[in-house]
Amino acid sequence: MPELKQLFDNNVAWSESVKREQPDFFEKLAKQQTPEFLWIGCSDARVPANEIVGMLPGDIFVHRNVGNVVLHTDLNCLSVLQYAVDVLKVRHILVTGHYGCGGVKASMQNDQLGLIDGWLRNIRDTYYAHYDELMKITNEEERVDRLCELNVITQVHSVSRTTIVQNAWLRGQKLSVYGCIYGIKDGLWKNLDVTVKGIEQIPEQYRVKPLKPIV
Predict the structure, then answer these.
(1) Taking the chain, what is the end-to-end CA distance rounded to the nearest angstrom?
(2) pLDDT tens digits, one per residue of 102-123
(3) How would you classify the pairing of strands 37-42 and 60-65?
(4) What would the pLDDT profile of 124-166 be if each residue is shown by its tens digit?
(5) I need a labelling partner for 139 at 20 to 30 A (CA). Which of 60, 61, 116, 132 fits?
(6) Residue 51: how many CA atoms within 13 Å on its side-chain side?
(7) DSSP class per residue in 129-189
(8) Which residues are annotated as catalytic?
């Protein structure tokens, strides 16, 4: 595969550089996976989770999709979430969007794109829920960026209201859900200060009761 030669060469160089700095790194990595963080982010190639926060492989468990959307009908996302919370026992869930997101921008328009139109419906609902606020922003780029933030906040609510996260809290597991956003133009990762750390922060109508044993 000559078209992939550069990638394979890069991989060898990277592997050798890691082993020079930490000779037993890969040996330790192969024996366990104990990340404290689950990153739920966008598929955008410009937003690499580990590099943004300066962490090595094994430090962050990652799920990515277009627009960093968390749907309660998405078995892929929920399976990642359940494994991270119940098996890996992560302590921090980092819902991370990014400014200038193409998926967010597309959700604000009526152009037909294909299959992804259904996926972006969740973001479009957020767009119309905050339509009056967003229309007060005259600069289009700033308007998109504000919806990027609002979308992250929506997804933090969605993660927090899953039975997976709420059951973890009910059994006393330490778990926090953060909303963050990344600036592609400056490389900075920002906390949106919408952290949810317990079931008492969930609106009562969305709270679940502990599971009762089946007899």
Answers:
(1) 59
(2) 999 999 998 999 999 999 999 9
(3) parallel
(4) 999 999 999 999 999 999 999 999 999 999 999 999 999 999 9
(5) 116
(6) 6
(7) HTHHHHHT--SHHHHHHHHHHHHHHHHHHHHHTSHHHHHHHHTT---EEEEEEE-TTT--E
(8) 42, 44, 46, 98, 101
